[in-house]
Amino acid sequence: VLVKNVPHVPGHSVSDTVNSFFKKNHSTHYLCHQTVYNANKYARAVRKRQKLQNKLDYNQLKLERHPNTRPTRKTGLLGLWGKKVDSIEYYQQKIKEVDEKYIQFKFIILKKGKERK
To answer: Rounded to 5, what percent of the chain is helix, strand, coil?
Structure first.
């Protein structure tokens, strides 16, 4: 059964609020609960990081095959124009940026589970 909008008790976590509500109102039928969070932004960050990691791995293998020339790419749209940069450094920087977002999303999801805003 999916239940939404259980009255919040100030100072208690969402889990504690749901637990006390159902134990009080449906004590004979209540067994347990599982809180569900919207983690779409977190999942997108995970997928984006994986794509960037694949591109980084590809460029590192490319460098291993041809150690004399470092792989480059352009920073513009689809790599068609813009400033030319080292691909390995570029993807390492992009992965660091995504990791920061990844950590923020994870923190937000976990914080919502402990406290209700």
So the answer is: 60, 5, 35
Pairwise CA distance, residues 59 & 54, whole Å: 9
CA angle 40, 41, 46 (to 5 degrees): 95
What are residue 44's phi and psi, to 5 degrees?
Answer: -65, -40
Q: Copy the structure tokens of residue 85.
A: 């940069």
Beta strands in 54-98 (DSSP E): 72-74, 84-86
Whole-number Å distance between alpha carbons of 22 and 28: 9
In the numeric block, the tokens 């977002």 are attached to: 101
Q: State if pTM tops 0.85.
A: no
Residues 49-62 have pLDDT tens digits of 999 999 999 999 99
